[in-house]
Every structure is written in structure tokens, then in C-alpha cells.
Amino acid sequence: MIIILKDNATKEDADFILNKIEGLNLKSLYMPGVERTVIGAIGDERVLAQLNLEANPCVEEVKTILSKYKLVGREIHHHDSVVKIGNTEVGGDQFHILSGPCAIESLELALESARIVSQAGAHSFRGGIYKPRTSPYSFQGLGDSGLEILRAVKEKYNTPIVSEIIDINDLEKMAKNVDALQIGARNMQNYVLLEAVGKSKIPIFLKRGMSATIEEFLLAAEYIYNSGNENIILCERGIRTFETATRNTLDLNAVAYIKQKSHLPVMVDPSHGTGLRELVIPLSKAALAVGADGLMIETHPNPVLALSDGRQSLNGSQFEKLMNELKILAPHFGKKI
Amino acid sequence: MIIILKDNATKEDADFILNKIEGLNLKSLYMPGVERTVIGAIGDERVLAQLNLEANPCVEEVKTILSKYKLVGREIHHHDSVVKIGNTEVGGDQFHILSGPCAIESLELALESARIVSQAGAHSFRGGIYKPRTSPYSFQGLGDSGLEILRAVKEKYNTPIVSEIIDINDLEKMAKNVDALQIGARNMQNYVLLEAVGKSKIPIFLKRGMSATIEEFLLAAEYIYNSGNENIILCERGIRTFETATRNTLDLNAVAYIKQKSHLPVMVDPSHGTGLRELVIPLSKAALAVGADGLMIETHPNPVLALSDGRQSLNGSQFEKLMNELKILAPHFGKKI
Amino acid sequence: MIIILKDNATKEDADFILNKIEGLNLKSLYMPGVERTVIGAIGDERVLAQLNLEANPCVEEVKTILSKYKLVGREIHHHDSVVKIGNTEVGGDQFHILSGPCAIESLELALESARIVSQAGAHSFRGGIYKPRTSPYSFQGLGDSGLEILRAVKEKYNTPIVSEIIDINDLEKMAKNVDALQIGARNMQNYVLLEAVGKSKIPIFLKRGMSATIEEFLLAAEYIYNSGNENIILCERGIRTFETATRNTLDLNAVAYIKQKSHLPVMVDPSHGTGLRELVIPLSKAALAVGADGLMIETHPNPVLALSDGRQSLNGSQFEKLMNELKILAPHFGKKI
Amino acid sequence: MIIILKDNATKEDADFILNKIEGLNLKSLYMPGVERTVIGAIGDERVLAQLNLEANPCVEEVKTILSKYKLVGREIHHHDSVVKIGNTEVGGDQFHILSGPCAIESLELALESARIVSQAGAHSFRGGIYKPRTSPYSFQGLGDSGLEILRAVKEKYNTPIVSEIIDINDLEKMAKNVDALQIGARNMQNYVLLEAVGKSKIPIFLKRGMSATIEEFLLAAEYIYNSGNENIILCERGIRTFETATRNTLDLNAVAYIKQKSHLPVMVDPSHGTGLRELVIPLSKAALAVGADGLMIETHPNPVLALSDGRQSLNGSQFEKLMNELKILAPHFGKKI
After folding, report:
1. In whole angstroms, what is the distance from residue D300 CA to residue D117 CA?
2. Which 8-state DSSP code applies to residue A34?
3. Of residues C68, C132, C216, nearest to D191 (C-beta)
């Protein structure tokens, strides 16, 4: 429910209403503006009805929030959110480039990858240390020992670090060592994990599930936001369809659609979204053109030797070429890199 | 790798090989048979090659396991597995009926549901207390307080209980109170959860992810088996397709296919698989006919009032009618109920 | 629109209304019953409103047809339709078996196939002579010369023949030589073809498009029915999904759903629906159990040598085994074979 | 099979080989180049083997064409094809804009639509007169009487016309009146229609089937090319997936993939590809960025009143805005408008 106060409403008027909302165990939002103060009330429709605010003399208008995603939708929060990863931004006019290998394989390779992506101008570095793999017999990541490597990368290249969390019991140690946590496609509806990271303030890089509808995707973000963490970056990474020529079908419709419905920044992962190195550059440009706020690109010093996802990883010179092209194109789409 | 010993091989010969396998940190399986002893070795192909067992004089034959799912496949384990939930069986010639409401809503409703399904002849009772819901504003289950209700149902109706686990930290308390744990569709690739339940011995009712391929489904079971828990029941519950007339598309192809490739019992959930009450009875019969080992059916004393999934739940008389029909049909498909 | 006349309404009353309907260029249906006469009027909603029949004293009730498929739906036509292929029936209590090779390859193979399926008890024979193939370089069928072979099969084994039509200009010559025309999955929305066969009275075996929704499937049948041909048999043959272990995903949900919504008989094609010979028998039983009215099974004397679809074809002894099992099971599902 | 001649090979040498190819009823291609002459031979692999050209002294190299699509693939034909619609081009550095209403509803609306799109700078005009509609009760197009309207539009605005063909018997009259024929998504595998238009030389605008794989799409083009018509423009128009927020999922992966594998120009239809007017502009830009050769955009003077597809049509000012943006962006992607 969106409650728009009259222009002469005072802070006390607002507090009165906020107390009433909280008194019914509803979630409240206080959004003072230049002209009007707007208050949000989120929760069970039947309880919302008990607020009976239409009669309050300082209330100008009461509107129902129609979409299922109340907090991440634009109905209550019109302007684009900007989320910070370390001291870099995602959203607004900043086009953010996050890059690195699929998995951290060794200190040496991690440093070499970080050198490549940093020199080419990426804003942040990614690399998995806990890998959710389809087969129990595939490389599962370095685990805890990878944390030290991520720390070493961060120190040497002064780059923010993003890495995937798969176990709520890893939250504390990861939050100490990385700048943003990725929730992978397979865990997009792992609500226990969503609520756990929602209770921290660390930025969350939330990837769309491989067969999640846009509504389910936004509701997953709503879980995190509703648990208290507003620092959410959405990431479209391709959906599962009948097509087999490409690994997934990158859904750029979803990016344009979400940008209209939600204030959260949306990045695109053309590496998983296509599964084919030679499609990463054209789809990266398309993501910029469609209105995305950034890219997640898999880069590896020697993709042929990568322990996972080598087929879709760029090497150093390919990544550099991509960055150079994007830097020229971005301003034509109202973005800077 | 499957190692078939010669018929004159001794227990000492087998132990020698088993030690060698374990010495390389590979997983070993010891399967003594009436005529021959068979030994399994599972792990990285390059390490398996180091075993060099062809030269061992007590070895008759060494075969590679071709499928990706080594332990749950039939290559190494030909015969159907039978899994027990409480003192009831799933698999072999037993057609198992698991029924109850989607969610435990209250003690009264739980007892009434249990009365209905027990009287009609169901073998076990199900009801969720931790519910993974798409929206954070939907009913999330009773949580821990539901455990007492499940215990009360179990005592009163002497029926085994199956309930869904969504958090590894709930494992201990749930294992004390229920007879089998469900892993839901959304968590089918939550490998942290799979490995956690794999370390217990409690039977696992593993539902197929809504867009999981058959191979991914069997590899999820492989995670559990490989962690040490052989008590796994697979459950086909419909996949996500373009069709919107039904909630999901129940994939009975998958049941027949899995019965050929895996020794694990396979149950079918026509309630989620169709989403429409009036399709539950015909699809239940089809599941029996295609070779499934049982059914998971949502039953509610008053489906119209159910807090979740009412549209697909049978009421008491519909469930009884279904049970009566299945009891007559089952013997024609080599099953008893 | 469904117009139910009063029990004292005369034939003249009905004719008056029928004339009025036809005068507005709407489609009329006259359905005299034992107790009441029912009249249907199909067409543009705005024109229907001009009928203004509520005021007519011999009219008991006027009801809108809610579903988009007016003529093939059960709202206006409650009872199951029975369609005849030659002198065999499809629908009602008859479970119809249509079998034969994917393509007619030669007279010899066609006769041998017909011998196999006839001896095992199939009711009709199928074989394609015009084959719509994905690649222009694949075997495209024998074309016109195949018609003579089909005639020879019909004479020798006294079996009705079903064969696919792909070109409206073939309609006349095919209608002379075969007993029913198949519209294949790729042509399910070839409305020119649907209307052309709709103007004949030859029975149509309409296969579901590989990504057609149930509604689109029934509307394709509506095109044929609306053009004047009521002899339509629907055939579920598997839909295209993300799953790659099987060629298609046989959608038995759709069979149960359509049986509730439409009066037309529904057959199932487990050969294309699975793409794997070893799944044909279990899925055939499931189709019987779910309420289908028959099966279309690909049978070939020597599947390994078949020019198309060999992987999914049964050989003679497999087909015979299937028939024997179905004959025993059918009565338990209210059907005879 | 690709046969590369030595640089001293004469026209007679080439003719000798071409005769040999044709003598075996294989399809031949003669491609003289500045440095080398290349000859293609297409057909059954076993017959190709009989050519035995490796031994011919004027042959430098013989290579097998690996892809299934021989003629439309780049293996034999490296450079981009450019197809002309009227005197406008599609392909190469020309970004082609084809626009107009879904259906021709009246002369007045057609002229008004043409005025809008012509003034804004579209290169060609589209409008359907034979409409393949899911329901037989929906507006089916004006039929033959629409041809005169299309002719009137062409004369008044001097614009090439593209319109959909659904019946092979309409080919002659349509070819006289329009500049290119559209094959719609539902007819993409109507091989009778593909072969019929393949025997003419009129440019074909071939839309991807709604669940056609990329390979099936290219093989549909191969049917047309193999029948003799090289003037083919491919059009990606969105595929059917589980997502329901948008009408289809526009598959820009496919555009980038096809541009690498095929020499044919590829256009994109963001109107059907999204189904939502407000997504047409961002997805149009994305199509340009990903490497497409043009756009097909639905424009209607008053979308709210359109008899079909109004929800996805731009009005005049929206189309003009899109054109203005595209004109500025195109040169950054190596294209002119």
C-alpha cells in the first residue's frame, strides 16, 4: 500500500502512521520527498485493510500496490537504485563490468586473470571457490582455501571481489573477504539462503534461475529486500529452452521488461547466456543497447585449459577488444564505463 | 569401474582390491553375489586408470561405467532397490501411496487429513511445515511448531511421516520426528542440502526440479548416494513447458526411462504434475501403468479452504475412490497396494 | 451460443430459429434430442447478439459458449463422438490400434509390415508416401507411386489405410485411395490445408503440433469441423521441451484434459512421443490408462534398416507382445480392442 | 562437397567437372573467383563419393561440407548475401526497415500506415491480406481484395511491398503484385509451400517457426535455395518458452549464431518477439547491436483499434522516434539506414 501524505503533513503525522503500520506487524517504508512524503506499508492484504488511512486528514491518497513484488517494483520506488560493489557503482549511468574465471583454480591463475581484466578496465573481479556442479565427480572448487586467493587478488589489484555463496554457514567468512555475494541460478529459489543474505548488508548479485519466470525472479529479489538488504543486482543469464545450438537462450526481453517494472540494476551474463565464446561480444553489445546496467563476462588466461566453462570464456585479448568496443559505444546509450 | 572377480576369488582377494581402491581415495563398493563377487570403484577416470587391475589374476573382467550416474545407475547395480519409509516399502512389487495436505495448517486439519488417507489405505502421510513459497508474502508453513503436529499424527494413526527439509540446520530435529525427508523441486540442485542429507541414513524423497533434465535429476540422486545414503526415492512431479492449460507437464516418459537406467524406486506426483484435481485420477492410473513404484497425492479435507494448492487437492471421497480403483488395477501391472 | 428449446417446441419453431441464424450468416447446428431440441449458433459475438432469442416464446434458455472451441467442445456436444476409419471405429468403448511403418519404402516392405500388424490385431494400417522431412536431402517418400502400394495393401489385408497429406492439390487422389488422412504435426496450423480437408468428409487424423498448446490444437480441429467435416480424430504425439533424453515429451496430461473438454476421440502416438523403442510399450499402457481412445504405433519388419524413424519402431514380435498385453488390460479401463 | 580448382584450371576443366556432377543428378554450383574457381556439389553422400575428383589433375582440394545446410551455410559461400526487395537492399552494410500494420484492414488505413512509415524512412511496407489465425472465428484478412489495396499503396508511396503467402495457389497473383513474399512462422515447415516459392525468383522473407531450432530454420531456407531461389531473408521473431510476461522470447543468440553460420541476411521482428509495444524500441536497438540486417516493425495509425496485434504495434510518433534513434546508432555498428 502506498500512502501519499498531503504537502502540509509533518514528521509527526508520518510517525503516527508509521507506528500504526508497525503496530500491525506490517513492514513500513518512509520516503520523504521534496514535495511530498510517501509511506509504504507491505504485508497481508487483510491486515492492510485494518489501517483505514483514507480517513486520516494528513493523507492525500492511498493506493494499492498491484504487482506481487512490492519492494523491488517501481510502483513504490520510481527511481533507479544504484548499488555499490566496493567503491564501484552498478546502476544509474554507470555500466559495470564484472569479469574473471568461472572457478578459482590456483593463486597463479587467479592473479593472471585479475591482471588481464583489471588492465582492460573491468570494475570488479569474480571467481568461484564453492562451485555447484551438476555431477558430484566434477571439480567442486577450492573451497575455503580459495578465500586467501581472493584476498590476495583484491590486495594486489585493488579490485572489488564477487564470489558465489552456496551454504548459509559460509556467510560470515565470505562477507569478511568479498565485496558482493553471488546467488547462482540453481539457488535462486533457495529461500533459506535468500533470507540469510537478506539479513546482511553485503551486496547480492542474484542470477536468474534457468527456468524462472521474470515474476519468480523479482520475487526472489523481494525475499532479500524484505529481509532487510536493499543492495541487490539482478543478472539475466539465459533461460532453458528447446534450442540446443546455444547453451541457454539469453532473454534480453526480460532485461527491458524488468527495467520498466523494477528499480534494481540489471546486469547480463552473455557467457552462460550463450555458452559460446564467439557469441559473447555481439550479445554484450546487445545487452548494452537493450538497457542493461552491466555485464558479467567469463575471462580465463587460457580457456582451453579451464577446469570449467572454458568453451564460453574469453581470453585476454578478446576481453580487451570487447572492452574497447564497449567504451566507445556506451555513451550512445547514456552510459559510461 | 566395475570389477568382476573370478569364481574362485576369495574374500582376501576382494579385500586386497578394495584396499587398493580406497588407497587411491576412490569410492569402493563391495557386492558379493552367489556366483561372482563384483567390486565397484568410483571416482576420477585418471585415478581409476592407475588401479591397473586387468593384470590381477583373480579379476575376470574390468568394465567402464558409461553413464554419468555411476551409483544410482543399473550398470553396477542391476536389481531394483527397495527403500523403506518407516515399516512400509517403496519399490519392488509394492506400489506405495503417500498422501496428505500440501501444508500442515493446524493440528485439527492434520489429524483429519491423516484419518482420511489412512482409512483409505495410504501407506504414509505427508505434510509440509517449512514451505518454500514463490512470494515472501505467502503462507510459509508453521515451522518448528509443526513438528509436534506431525508427531501427534504419527502416534494417532501409526503412519510413517514424510516432510520437506529446506535448511540443513533443521536436519537433526527433523530426522528425529519424521520417517523420510522430502527434497523439493526448487532444491533439487541445492548440493549443500543434498550432501547434508546424504550423510544421514534417513530415506530421501527427491523431487525432480521443474526444469531439470533426467540426467541432472539422476546426478542429484548421485550426490546423495555418493555421500553415503542409499535410501533414495525419486519423484517425477511435472516439468515446466510452454503449456499453460495444466500447471506442469507430467513427464511419464521420464518414469519409464529412469526405470530402465536406474535401480532406484520412482514415484509420481500427479497433483503438482497437473495442477488440476480432475486430472489426478487419470494420471495416477497412467503412472501405475507406465511402471512407477507409487504416488504422492495431495489430499485435503476441504480443498477449497486450503492455504496452498487447493486447486489440485483431492477431498476425502475422491481419494477413497482413487484408492479403490488403484487396488483393483495394481495386480495387472505386477504390483500390490 | 446454445439455444435450448421448450419441450413443446415444434420442428417449425426450430426451423424458424435456424433460418434466422443462417440469415445472419452464422453457422447453425440442429440437435434434436429425446426430451429437448438444442440449437447452436456459432460466429461473431456481435452478430450473435442480434439474434435476440431470449424473447422467443419457444426458447427455454440461451447460453453463451465460453470456450474458444465451440464445435469440438463439450459445451454444445456432451457425448463422445465416434469416428469410423473404413469400417472400424475410434472412440466410445473401442480402443483403436493404427500401425505400420513411418514411410512406405517398397511394395514388399509395405506388404510385410501390413501382414505383421494385421495378424497381431491392428485395426488399420498407416504409412507415409509424402514425407515432410526437416532436410531437403532426406528421403521424401515415394510420392504418387506409393498410392498403388497402399491400394495393394488394402486389398490384400482388407485393412483401412491412413496416410499423411501435405499438399491440398493431392486431396482428390488421396481421398480415392485411403480411408483417413493424417495432418502431421508440422501442418497443424496450415489453415489452408485444414480448410481444404474440412470440405471433404474423409476422416482426419490430426496430430498435435510439436509446440502447440492444447487450445491451439483444439482450434485447429475447430477449423476442420467448422469447414464441414466432423470426422476428426485428435492425436497427442509429444511436445517439444528442454528434455533431450527422449525425442519429445509425451503429454498425457493433454489427453486427460482434452477428454474432459472435447467430444472428439483422442489417440496417442508413443513412437514419436518418446522416440525410443523401449519406451513405446510402457507409454502405450499409460495412454490406455489415462483414457485415450487408441494408439498410433510405428512398426517395421526390420527397424534397423528403416529409412526414417527406425530408432522408435517396433519389430513384429515387439508389436505382437504389445497387442497381447493391451488386449488383456483394455477391459479394465472400459475399452475393447 | 567443395571442389577448389588449381589456379591454372580452365573454364573447360570446370565444365568437365560440372557435367560430371550433373550427370550423377547432383546439384552443382559454379563460383569463379579472382584467384581460384570453386565448384560445389550437393546431394547424397554416397553418390558424391562416386565423383572421385581427388585424382583430377586440375583439382587442388576437395572438402566435405560438414553442416546440414549446404547452400545457405558459409562453408561454400563465405561472403554475405545481399537480397533486394524492389530496389532496396537487405544485407551488407544496409540496415533495412520493413514496417506496416499486421493486417490490411481497409484502403484508408493502409494508405495512412504507409504514409507514416514512409515519411519516417522505412524502406518497405508490409501488411497481411491472408492471415493465418489461431481461431477460425478471428479476422482472416481481406483476401484477394487486399491485393488492390497493396497495389494502391505501392503506387502512391513508391514503396516495395511485402505480404504473407499461405496458399501455393496464390503464388502467381501475389508475385505480380508484391515485391517479396513472407512465409510465416506457422508455415516454416510447410515444405510444399517452401518448394513452390523456391521455384520462383521472388524474394522470400522467411520467419522462424515458433519452436523451430536454428538448424531447422536454416534447413527450411535450404529447401527454398535448393529449389532455385537464392533471394532469402531470414527473420527471427521470438520463440516459445515457459515465460508468459512477454508473448515470445526474442532469441538474439540465434541472430549472432546464424550470422556466423549462414551468408543470408537476418532481420528481427521485435513486435512479435516481445508482444509488448514498450519493449519494441529497446529490443530494436539490441537487434542492431547484435548484428542483424534489419527490422520488421508493426506500425498502425491507431493501435488500440487494430483488428489484430494492436498490443504490440507502434503508432506513428513512436515509429518515428525509433527511426530517428536508429539512424544515429546504425553507423556505430557498421550499418547505414
Report:
1. 9
2. S
3. C132
Q: Is B334 helix (H, G, I), strand (E, B) or coil?
A: coil
Query: What's the mean pLDDT when you consider all of chain D?
Result: 95
What number is the average pLDDT over the span B286-296? Answer: 98
Least Cα distance to B192 among B163, B216, B223, B214 occurs for: B223
Residue of D nearest to B248 (CA): D242
CB contact under 8 A, A44 and B137: yes
Tell if the CB–CB gap between B246 and C239 is shorter than 8 Å: no
Structure confidence at residue B103 as a pLDDT band (50, 70, 90) = very high
* Residue of chain A minimizing CA distance to B223: A136
Contact C319, C99 (CB under 8 A): yes
Extract the C-alpha cell encoding D114.
504507409
Q: What are phi and psi of D235, to 5 degrees?
A: -135, 115
Residue A295 has which C-alpha cell? 555485464
- The pLDDT tens digits of the residues spanning B293-319 come to 999 999 999 998 888 888 999 999 999
Nearest-5° Cα angle at D34, D29 to D36: 60
Length of chain A: 337
Q: Which residue is listed with cell 506400489?
A: B95
What is the C-alpha separation between C109 and C114, in angstroms, rounded? 8
Most confident region among B56-65, B131-140, D173-182 by mean pLDDT = D173-182
Stated pTM of the model: 0.94
Residue in the block written with cell 565470505 = A174
ipTM of the complex: 0.93
Q: How long a stretch of residues is chain C?
A: 337
Which residue from C246, C274, C332 is facing B329, i.e. has the nearest CB?
C332
C67-77 pLDDT, tens digit each: 899 999 999 88
For helices A107-120 and A145-157, the axis angle rounded to 10 degrees is 30
Sheet of A37-42: strand order equals A27-32, A37-42, A2-5, A59-63
What is the residue whose three cell numbers read 519493449? Answer: D279
Reduced to 3 states, what is the DSSP secondary structure of residue D178?
coil
Among B247, B236, B214, which Cα is nearest to B294's?
B236
- Grid cell 556467510 is found at A171
pLDDT per position as a tens digit, D260-271: 999 999 999 999
End-to-end CA distance of chain D: 37
Q: Tell me which amino acid residue B73 is.
A: G
